[in-house]
Amino acid sequence: MISSKKVLSIIVILIVVLAGSLFFLYRPLSEGTIIMTRISSDEDISILSQKHLKTANFNSTIVAFNPNKPKHSAKILTGDFYTAHSPELSGDSRQIVFTGKMNPKSNRQIWLMNLNSQRYHALTDESMNCFDPFFLTNERIAFSCDWQHDQYGSGSLLFSMDPDNGKMNRITFHPHADYAGSMLHDGRIMWISQQVYPDNEAKTLMALRPDGTNANLFYQLPADYQIISKARENDDRQIYFAAKNTGSVTGSSLLQFSYINPVTSTQKAYESENGMILSVYPRVDGSLLVAYQNSRSGNAGLYEFNQVNAKMVSLLADEEYHYIEPVVVKGQPFLPKVLPTALNDTMDTGIIVFTDPNLNINQSNHRNLIRVEGLDGIYKEFLTAIDGSFYIIATAKVPIRFSQLNEKGEIINGPYPWTWVMSGDRRGFTGWNPIQMIAPANLVPQAINDPAIQISAPGPVDLPFIVDFNRASEVRDED
Amino acid sequence: MKIKKSVLIIIILLLFATLFVNRAMNWATDHYEYYTIGEISEVRERHIDALKCFSCHAYTQKDGFFVQKTEGIYSSPYNLAVTPDDDFLLVTGQESDRLYIIDLKNNQIVNSIQVGERPHTVIISPDGKKAYVTNQWSGTVSVINLDSGEEINTITVGGGASGIVADFDRNILYVANTYTANISVVDLNTETEIKRLRAGNYPSGLNISPDNSTVVAVSQRSVIVEHRDPPKTEVTIIDAATQRVSKRNYFMESHIMEKVMFTPSGDLAFTTLVRPKNLVPAVQVENGWMMTFALGIISPETGAMVQLPLDDPNLYYADPYDVRITPDGKRAFISHSGNDYITAVDVDMIRNVLERVNSGEIVNPENDLLLSESYMLNRIATGSNPKGMAISADGNTLYVAERLTDHIALIDTQTLEIRDYIALNDANQNAFLRRGEQLFNNAAHTFQYQYSCYSCHPDNHEDGLTYDMAYYPGMDISNVQTLRELSNTSPFKWNGKNVSIYMQCGMRFSKFITRTEIFSPGDLKALVGYITSKIEHPPNIYRGEGEELTAAQKRGKELFERTTTNSGKAIPLRDQCITCHPPPNFTDRMMHDVGSATDKDTHPEFLTPHLNNIYESAPYLHDGRAQTLEELWTIYNDDDLHGVANDMTKDQLNDLVEYLRSLGRAEYYYDK
Predict the structure, then answer these.
(1) Sheet of B244-252: strands edge to edge?
(2) How many residue pairs bridge chain A and chain B with CB atoms within 8 Å of each other?
(3) What are phi and psi of A291, to 5 degrees?
(4) Which of A23, A216, B117, B646 is the most exposed place for a label (fewest CB within 10 A)?
């Protein structure tokens, strides 16, 4: 007969053990913990210098490390997944979003994980191939999803979502491959964008407001570099990314430029002749966490890059695994601003005002012939106002681009990059420079004295840009 | 039985009370939502828990208990000067009405001298014996004996005395009178004003060439231009030998020129300026679509100006105020009062850019946001609202008046780093209303720091411009209104949509004006508290406080209050001036159709503006079409909808305008 005292003791012990287990199992990740993507060293990650991680069918997992004892503190966060990668932390570091799929044949989905409980759920369904999620500032999430079209090729677009209701909003509307988004401190999204129709090799960084407005070319890489990692800003308004030297088979570099002046501020922070820099994460203290494969035969490990002496100091190297895509718990260098939106969903058009920067007050005749084209053809050709300005009301969420024509109808300027307006959107352009660095002259654009030129696609609004996500993912995976 | 009856009565009373409390709560909720939220649901999300009854009924009550208790006593250093021996620094305290004398050997205040109201600028005689301080609200110059530390004379000049410079060779003092738009010429031998020269609109900065041959005066505001024409601001050139205006140059797109400084060689004069984009539809902020800031490089010889941007492509340096050049002419410094930076520029590189502009290599430099990196050396972060600056005689130290932190920053002109600070007092610079004033003056709450509240409301007033802010370009053009004495003039905006300043500065402001994150609830309260309780009109220049009306003003008052026309016909109540413009603020705070709407307006009725110090607020009408008060009736009142006035003679109209100009601070009319 067991005494009631013993029973009580056993119950107390069980409770203590259970509580202890729960504590160790669900304890929050401490400040400074590094969360990364881990890939088996059997996989050939050299493909990542050419293609996005989503195109490789690697078996990968997301792990968390204490940076003070990296080899002994690995904690697997995504054990149930065939592949999980590209983790990004929420502003309060309580959650991560990541790309993952449960089996090799399915599409990639966006997943949200509570870091305390390590419970997760999918935010997108398997019918779409989605990847590269990150948190916006207002608890929303943005990510990329693939599209594919018989005529226009294949690419990817940016979406945003409120995780509470799962409603997705597309925020980019052009025939591009858009991916690797991150937040700028000013509250805009910066991402890698490559025009795929007509095909263009150049990858650039674009920026737009999270509501899909004011998308602009933000940064053009020097001609001898191709961007291979997500670009990230630090709290000193410097933006870092890894780039491949196009003239070299093996070389890669860590480049930086200033948010304040992206056009002329590019600097090479580090160059590796034989190694490959795969990702970079700016820390609050000004140092950089870099995923770096110092030789093509070795594994990618985690390094701390000291900008003062340009030295890479190894933090984590492992014979069994590659480590890429580090993020740091409560280590975000800044909290981006929450940008308001002035969009009006009841409208199906938006406004564009174009002013001619070459105009000055003494010029009286600067009339130009403008062509507006969409994916499915020329929408309209018209003469600008006498001062070179034009004012259009265009169907929202339809890609258009402008060209300036001569009297014979030949293009003399352009075509300008694809652009679009959102519902109730208003935006302006000054001149024909892809990167807008000219402020408008303080004159009333003569075009606004006349009725706006109406631009609309000949067919239904959603036709020019048909998206077939399932097919797109198949095509991509076959690559 | 009695107890039972009492209990019953108590229960019934409690039930009534509950009913009353419920009604009161419902009323309070409606009242709260009406004044703070409006139709904007996002504001509800952000502010429902943040704004309380106290937010309006305590924090924003002018002269209320809370405002009194949270108000510090501040110095607000505005401009400064160094003695020729580099031993002392003289600082004007705009808010304390004092001149501070700081011993630079130990950076300690050794004296502070009471001067006039709102001291502006100080200069020192070459022998270091005397200082001359302009008092903007007194319209005087205080003459200070620096040996005795006393004000020894007060020279009466024009209204709004601000910039001051002396030609000590000829013993002549020049004072820019901002409010009366002229320049006082003062004989220093007799210390009396000998004449006034007409200047631009709101002249502010003055300086004299190193050879004492030319005085240059810059103006804050554009002269009155045709409706929706580009602003053009006057630079007045004075021949120092004759003390006569030799040239008036007008510069397009230049605005709020605050200060001017000659290079040591005298071949160039630098001025700070704002380049507003008020004619361009405000479809976005990005790419300098609302406002940019520049350094104006004036050739005194030709009178030409080249404007060189001070901004970067993705970051703007709002509200440049002062410019100083080192004695060797190599470096210039510009204070950006709107984003708390000093920009250091290389003067040789400026000259290089000028050559390229003159040769045609650089076209339209003023709007090229990439150009500043050609001559910019460094950006030096300072405390809140850096205004006036001075450079030591040895050229090694730049002194900066941090107006809203009550500090003087000492910057090494070689290393371009802050070396030290001098605190003028120990007041709490984070107090509620002080914080509001800092926010008002700071552009950090605008996308890419492009403009502050101050940028469109310089000196807490308005910039005299009209903006194209409505959704459809060219529609509902809006004339900027003053922020002075707003506390009893709600609602706001020409369309009367915003019933409180909370609504005016809340989510709508963030969506359509600043295009960045909304103010935090605490910041919003501080900002609204500052706007409603601290911003006053300067003294009326047409009628001193307590003075009797002039004969013309009396006649004008009778016309303003008249009930019959010249022919004796009764004027309907709604067509009498005083009906819609009753004192003390001379507004009934209602919407009226006064026949001013055009086909570019989406509604015919507009909010009645208040008329205190109305003479300072040209142009007039909701869209700024009327250049003068006279035009309200001579051009824009064909049908007598804006008050019956078509029967008035020219003299009567002049009298009416004289009376309107005499309408001063509202508190005067409360007393009456």
Answers:
(1) B201-208, B214-222, B232-239, B244-252
(2) 136
(3) -90, 120
(4) A23
